[in-house]
Amino acid sequence: MTVLSVRDLALTIGDTPILHDIDLEVKAGEILGIVGESGSGKSLTALSIMQLLPRASRWTGGIEVAGNDVGKMSEKALCSMRGRDVAMIFQEPMTALNPVHTIGHQIAETILIHGECSRRQAGERAAALMNRVGLDPERISPNRYPHELSGGQRQRVAIAMAIALRPKLLIADEPTTALDVTTQAQILDLLRSLVRQDRMGLVFITHDLAVISNLADRIAVMREGRVVEAGATDEVFREMRHPYTRALFSASAHVPDRSPVIKRQGEPVLAVRDVVREYPRPRRSLFQAANPFRAVDGVSLDIRYGENVGLVGESGCGKSTLARAILALDRLQQGEILINGQTFSEAGSGPDMKQRAGVQVVFQDPYASFNPRHPVRRLIAEPLYLIENAPEGAEREARIVRALEEVGLEASDADKYIHEFSGGQRQRIAIARALIIEPSLIVLDEAVSALDVSIRAQILDLLAGLSERLGISYLFISHDLSVVRSITDRVLVMREGRIVEEGPTEEVFLAPRHAYTKMLIAATPTLRERSA
Amino acid sequence: MILYFLRRLTALLLTMFAASIVVFLVTEIIPGDPASFMMGINADPQAVAALRTELGLDQPVATRYLAWLLGMLQGDFGQSYTYKVPVSELVGDRIMVSLPLTLYALALSTLIAFPAGVISAARRNTTADFAVIGATQLGVAIPNFWFAMLLVLAFAVNLHWFSAGGFPGWDAGFLEGMKALTLPAVALALPQASILARVMRSSLLDTLDEDFVRTARAKGLTRSQTLWRHALRNALIPVLTIVGLQFSFLLAGGIIIENVFYLPGLGRLVFQAITQRDLIVVRSVIILLVFAVVAVTFLVDMAYAAADPRLRRRPR
Question: How large is the average pLDDT for residues B192-215?
Fold first, then answer.
């Protein structure tokens, strides 16, 4: 039975055409993967099916959900269709639930709104649903609020809400993108088993080829509002008829060419010695302060000249806190941090500003990490104040141009503003800002995580080249194990504030010793098995 | 929740204590000796000195502060220098006008602002929305004393529905009292309602853009169900903040309106007391207003916690 059929769907918002000639079909019990980069129209295709399009949208073509033509339905009929025949799960579990209602209430609401049963029965059914999505109501009470749950638990609540009335079609828009790999693996298993048990149709939208290759029965590859290739998953991966599919595939599995020159002698570029970082916790009693939360618990590490070191671990393991400590943005409670053998920051005293020029940083979000009112020239020249006798006039200008050219931009870009650049270009500018004072070490905190795969591949190549040419070391922090594997020489695995495993990258990935590392690697979806 | 309550309460008491010191010291620094002011310019220095002793002005600062503080805790605010009556009596009379007026104005403001803000946000970019935007723009722009005079002209002078000013006292009956306060309350409420409606509108529009609203729509809720069940409560926090600020402002900020309508309110009392160097009255009224502000902030904090469970931080 066909639960979704989309024929010649075209969509315009205002005067901008967004989607063209989209054809999709999903049968009961089948998983359709829609894959594509940002802006390819994946999410708007989903919202067209739900009829939850933004204002000023106009669409043409045919959309049938469970045999009903949604184009002919009134808003009232659409409301009764949503949640009953077709349900949707969104990307961001942190914001997808209403913070002021309990989770039990929000699950029961789907049932109540469609007038299925009484309030009490709905509550009982909500508890049963929680059980079904792997939230034991004995342990996690339905009376809890969303902020008391982890990201993975919230996504389970969102799934429970969506499957409450056993819809014939479930649309999941990047449901695991914001989750850790181990949580992602659990959520994917859950979705897979729900589809099989209830014979639902599932449309799974993602940018991640590795995730979709292990999940979908059929795949549609989208680019610039069109489906460029569609077919059975194995077939698409085997044949890759469209050049874009091939490009997407090779970018996803991209490994930059590297021949690192690492100096093992002399002082390390970065030495972290028994560093402890604690956060105060909220008080539980009026008269007694709570024990502080130890986010980084006695971490030591060295990074050598020219060496790329990866730091992996799940969210909340202390990766970013450690990064902030290394950058001396926070005070240490114990231990010390040395740059090129000189003390940069130690417990009990603030950072030694003279050393700050030795370490720079690139953050995750290329949109939020620039002041929009400053031209690029000013943005990238900002770190120059850190060095004594900062260059002036022509020499300063020459350095700005050199930094821009190093990252593949042009001298004329210096006068533009940040909104004139794409995400990938912005990340290049962030790298230029870090390079301009020729630091020994750049901390890359999830620096490529927000980028599309093809852009990510370019940035990884750029980083690899810069490291070799300029002898810069990287501390590469990421939750994405495959990226870390492709660009680092050595990897550290962090869990609950401690380094649990450390070793040459390939050795750790091929033969992990710690149980936690084994679990992380097993949970990471890979393309390799499929293509082999 | 209990911990949150206790913490807020502690903050309230500490703020009151700190405020009492500041208020006391500031009224100490103000130039002008109450005793010489009361005796007139040509007073005999000995008589002034005697009066200073009688008023306790020759005592050390710390002693006088403690005496003032302990007195207040027992409900004794001291004697007014000029009126020669207990300050508590004086202030009590005025509060019986100012507090009902404030509550009346606040109720009107909220009753106007909530529906206006909700309609405006729910029907964004429609005629109704533009009407609310235009009306609130006007409401913010019009000076309230001028609006008050228009009200007097229309409803008192021409239509004779209300009296043009004065307050008959609550002895004349509740309805009579409320009637006398109606025009001033409307005049006070207009700009407040305009501000509040705008805050309500923008807060609600922000909330309607949130992910969880989209989730609710995906579950099958209609637009208006989504607004009432999911968006409204989330949009309330900034609105509550403004309501709290407006209460404090209205309690003493009504001085111009009190003058326009000849109301014996707190604003006029404090104005007269300042011009007559009646420092004991000034001090008491200010400390009372500080208390009102802090207490309302406390209530608003409690309302936050009621509206948003994330603030209740329950110990696990």
Answer: 92
A81 to B220: CB separation less than 8 angstroms, yes or no: yes
Cβ–Cβ < 8 Å for B300, B239: no
Residue A138 is encoded by which pair of tokens?
């004995």
Q: Residue B130: which pLDDT band, with cuts at 50, 70 and 90?
A: very high
Of residues B24, B28, B25, B44, the one with CA closest to residue B36: B44
Q: Are A95 and B210 within 8 A, CB to CB?
A: yes
How far does CA A438 lie from the centroid of its chain? 29
Nearest Cα to A209, choosing from A181, A186, A233? A233
Other Cβ atoms within 10 Å of B30 Cβ, number:
11
As for the ipTM of the complex, it is 0.81
Q: What is the pTM of this model?
A: 0.82
Exposed, middle or buried: residue A396 (CB in 10 Å: 0-12, 13-18, 19+)?
middle
- A379, A371 contact by CB (below 8 A): yes
Least confident piece of the model among A285-294, A505-514, B134-143, B232-241: A285-294
CA of A519 vs chain B CAs: smallest distance (Å): 29
A-chain residues near B218 (CB < 8 A): 50, 52, 82-83, 87-88, 90, 162
Q: At A500, give phi and psi (nearest 5°).
A: -100, -20
User: Measured between beta carbons, which residues in chain B are less than 8 angstroms from residue A75?
Assistant: 222
Q: What is the predicted pLDDT for the residue at B118?
A: 93
Show the low-confidence residues of chain A (pLDDT under 70).
283-287, 528-532
Nearest residue in chain A measured CA to CA from B211: A96
What phi and psi values does residue B180 have, to the nearest 5 degrees? -65, -25
Burial class (CB in 10 A: 0-12, 13-18, 19+), A282: exposed
For strands A293-303 and A270-279, give the pairing.
Answer: antiparallel
Q: How confident is the model over B58-114, as pLDDT tens digits? A: 777 788 888 888 888 887 877 777 777 888 888 888 888 888 889 999 999 999 999
Beta carbons of A52 and B216 less than 8 Å apart? no
The H helix count followed by the E strand count for chain A is 18, 20
Q: Residue B210 in contact with residue B234, Cβ under 8 Å?
A: yes
B250 phi, psi to nearest 5 deg: -65, -35
Q: Among all chains, which residue has been given the structure tokens 């009432």?
A: B228
Considering only residues A384 and B160, tell me which one the structure prediction assigns the higher pLDDT: A384
B contacts of A158 (beta carbons < 8 Å) = 215
Q: Which of B214, B221, B308 is closest, CB to CB, to A100?
A: B308
Structural element, H or E, at residue A360:
strand A359-362
Residue B149 CA to residue B257 CA, distance in Å, equals: 9
Nearest CA in chain A to B316: A284
